[in-house]
Amino acid sequence: MKDSLILVRGGTFTMGSPDSERQRGEDETAHNVTVSDFYADPCEVTQADYERIMGSNPSHFSGADLPVDSVTWYDAIEYCNRLSESRDPSVVTSSYRGKTIAVDSLSPNQFGLYNMYGNVSEWCFDYYGAYDLTRTVDPAGAASGSLRVNRGGSYIDFAKHLRSAYRSATNPEDPDQNLGFRIARNAQAGEGTVETTFSLDIQMPENPRILVAYFSYSGNTENAARIIRDKTGADLVELEMENPYRGNIYEVSQADLNNHVHPALRTHIADVDEYDVILLGYPTWWATMPMPVVTFMESYDFDGKVVIPFSSHGGTMFGDSVSDLSKMIPGSYVGQGFEFNYSGGSGLSDEISQWLALNGIKER
Q1: Does the model's pTM come out above 0.85?
Q2: Contact 215/245 with Cβ under 8 angstroms?
Q3: What percentage of residues in the chain have a pLDDT greater than 90?
Q4: How far apart are CA 249 and CA 217, in angstroms?
């Protein structure tokens, strides 16, 4: 059966980003990489494609020609395996739409590939890890890890996430509505296999000691934090700034974000080591964590702990803030996050209960 994949000619290119690129990450070391020819689908996998192969459609946005979303890394791998078995060997100025669009609705790039940025962020096979600068021909990513890479950014992300060098690092069991995939395969048969190993051995204790740590600006995150405290009996601490944001919150907080300022905190936790689980709350601003939360995460050692985020948002949802969190604490297990719009409404308490159960946390 003829498939729809197109040939992408291989070559040598600079992976990563130059030091001068705005808002580049420390994990974007520029290095030359050679990639062999490969085939790729011009479009992301649609909901119609997915339902035909898998028999179900988990997507948040509904439409046969929209990209399938809310798929885990494992879902994407299973789809590709089933598909293999079944076959038996011009740029437009964009705007925020608040949803995905049909997979071929904009012009393709020079390779003939559609929507490589900004529709759904696409799962990659690779574990997230430092680039191996000695393996520069058809590199397969880190041999071990706990987070899988996705690239390209989604409809909900900001420009800093819509760059070729940017790698999002995500729990492979995460089915967020901004995650999808496209299929690709070698142009020529390869040699051997690529083996990867899950390297994080962190278990949830039977009776975990829990800390709810939160940063709140308008009170929405604080409200959720108190509900979580009441349900779990956890200790509760507010992350307070030494010099709280004043004036236009969008301007002052964005300035810290753009300039990578780590504002000092008034809050100090005497012994973080006594906790097994940190439930971390914050409002999501510009698809990232507020910088005071970054200060908190960099102030303590979270190795061996379970860290689970919850977030109040005004429409941008988690964005890539969970990826940013995961990169900061590679020795921790980052669980399934919970996000809610503004105050969360009357259903917030029940939704929190469902989230706690999903992460194996018992209510008292």
Answers
A1: no
A2: no
A3: 78
A4: 9
